[in-house]
């Protein structure tokens, strides 16, 4: 009984925040969080719903850096796949490691073996590639992954282009001056814009804490669940006692199950499912 009472007291430490949009009754979330602006430079956008993207746009130093980063990631993926295929199919390692001698009529005896000596002709390389079924399957799979990443990057760039226009037209921050503005400065302009031309219709005035809650929402939920021992990250091992185990892979899977997957806690980017409430 004492243990149960202590647990109840622990759960009472987390008090419900008044006027918190994620705990509002079903059906009211969209009306409160969607942007209801039909005129002006901001267009149709929900400030709270897009605050995370606005923050990431600032942290990634603008559209040019985002574009360059995505292009280099796609090129890097292609390079890794192409170079790995070249090393598997187009290099004669017997010649490279001198386990088989070169043609002595063309290369003097005891000559130093160089990489061009071990590279196979293009026709022989293509034959070895066609004769390896599992490698062709992996290449097709890699091509599909690259296309998915390309589509994702294009969609992300379209969204960041809209946010770039939002920075320029609504916040008055040119693209070449973004690096001179701290996040606190951008946040102050967001709040000033909300007071001057409401971007959303909350029950109370928008504050810095609202934006921080929006940006750190999933992370705050994760931290709270770890603090309340709702996530399996603490284990009791023999002779070692309590051990905390949370790898990046385990964290990714937990976030996929709780937040991003079809059976997650949220029915959209801001509203909890009624059964979870």
TrEMBL record:
Keyword list, A-Z: Autophagy, Lipid transport, Membrane, Transmembrane, Transmembrane helix, Transport
Name of the protein in its database record: Autophagy-related protein 9
Subcellular location: Preautophagosomal structure membrane
Membrane-topology descriptor: Multi-pass membrane protein
Ranges of Basic and acidic residues composition bias in the record: 1-18
Taxonomic superkingdom: Eukaryota
Composition skew (Acidic residues), residue ranges: 19-29
Entry-linked PANTHER family: APG9 AUTOPHAGY 9, AUTOPHAGY-RELATED PROTEIN 9B
Record-annotated membrane-spanning stretches: 134-154
UniProt xrefs under InterPro entries: Autophagy-rel_prot_9 (IPR007241)
GO CC terms: autophagosome; phagophore assembly site membrane
Native species: Calyptomena viridis (Lesser green broadbill)
Region named Disordered: 1-29
Its job: Phospholipid scramblase involved in autophagy. Cycles between the preautophagosomal structure/phagophore assembly site (PAS) and the cytoplasmic vesicle pool and supplies membrane for the growing autophagosome. Lipid scramblase activity plays a key role in preautophagosomal structure/phagophore assembly by distributing the phospholipids that arrive through ATG2 from the cytoplasmic to the luminal leaflet of the bilayer, thereby driving autophagosomal membrane expansion.
Similarity annotation: Belongs to the ATG9 family.
One GO process term, biological-process aspect: piecemeal microautophagy of the nucleus
């Amino acid at each position: 009984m004492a243990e149960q009472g202590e647990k109840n007291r622990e759960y009472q430490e987390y008090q419900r925040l008044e006027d918190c949009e994620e705990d509002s009754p079903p059906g009211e979330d969209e009306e409160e969080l969607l942007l209801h602006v039909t005129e002006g430079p901001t267009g149709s956008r929900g400030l709270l719903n897009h605050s995370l993207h606005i923050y990431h746009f600032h942290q990634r130093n603008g559209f040019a850096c985002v574009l360059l980063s995505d292009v280099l990631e796609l090129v890097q993926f292609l390079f890794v796949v192409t170079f790995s295929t070249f090393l598997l199919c187009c290099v004669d390692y017997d010649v490279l490691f001198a386990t088989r001698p070169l043609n002595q009529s063309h290369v003097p005896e005891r000559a130093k073996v160089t990489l061009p000596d071990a590279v196979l002709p293009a026709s022989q390389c293509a034959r070895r590639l066609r004769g390896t079924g599992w490698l062709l399957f992996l290449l097709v799979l890699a091509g599909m992954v690259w296309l998915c990443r390309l589509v994702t990057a294009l969609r992300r760039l379209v969204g960041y282009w809209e946010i770039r226009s939002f920075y320029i037209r609504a916040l008055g921050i040119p693209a070449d001056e973004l690096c001179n503005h701290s996040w606190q400065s951008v946040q102050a302009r967001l709040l000033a814009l909300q007071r001057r031309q409401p971007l959303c219709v909350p029950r109370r005035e928008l504050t810095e804490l609202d934006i921080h809650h929006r940006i750190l929402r999933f992370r705050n939920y994760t931290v709270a669940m770890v603090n309340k021992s709702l996530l399996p990250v603490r284990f009791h091992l023999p002779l070692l006692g309590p051990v905390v185990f949370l790898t990046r892979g385990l964290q990714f899977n937990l976030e996929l199950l709780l937040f991003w997957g079809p059976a997650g806690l949220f029915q959209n980017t801001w509203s909890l499912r009624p059964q979870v409430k």
